[in-house]
Amino acid sequence: MVATTELDRMTWYRCEKCGLLVDSEMDAEQHEECCDGDSGSPSYWW
Description:
The chain is of the alpha+beta class. It has one domain. It is built from 1 helix and 3 strands, in the order βββα. A 3-stranded antiparallel beta sheet has the order 1-2-3, covered by helices on one side. The protein starts with a strand and ends in a 12-residue tail after the last helix. The mean pLDDT is 83. This is DUF7128 domain-containing protein.
């Protein structure tokens, strides 16, 4: 489950495993499914 935070009047979605912020809830959920929590992003991400 991703967390939400507001920054600069925008809602951002945060991976609870690594803290990565993205502006799309769907992208955050997809990231979190593959996130190992250590490196901050899985190999396919960016």
